[in-house]
Amino acid sequence: MRNDFSPIALAMMTGVAIGMLASVFGQKAINQHHLKTCGDKVNHTLVHTTGFLGDTYYCVHNKYL
User: Fold this and answer.
1) What kind and span of H or E run contains 25?
2) Measured between alpha carbons, how far apart are the two ends of the chain, in Å?
3) Backbone angles phi, psi at 56, to 5 degrees
């Protein structure tokens, strides 16, 4: 009997790695957008958090802070 688990495991690990990289680069693009546009908005504050994927910026209306 052949062991067919190796290609499946490799495909799963590759998919997870691609997904994580896409998440990191997507978050960097969203951060740049918030850093650029939040200063122009009235009654908004730039909020910074640090998580598993790195730094995250949010542009939050002051009534929610």
Assistant:
1) helix 5-37
2) 61
3) -135, 135
Separation CA 14–CA 44 (nearest Å): 39
pLDDT tens per residue across span 4-42:
778 888 999 999 999 999 999 999 999 999 999 998 999
DSSP type of residue 53: T
DSSP state, residue 39: G
The domain segmentation of the chain, as residue ranges, is: 5-64
Instruction: Kindly tell me the sign of the dihedral angle through the C-alpha atoms of 12, 30, 44, 35.
Output: positive
Strand extents, DSSP E, the chain:
44-51, 54-61
- What's the whole-model pTM score? 0.74
Nearest partner of 56 among 29, 36, 37, judged by Cα? 29
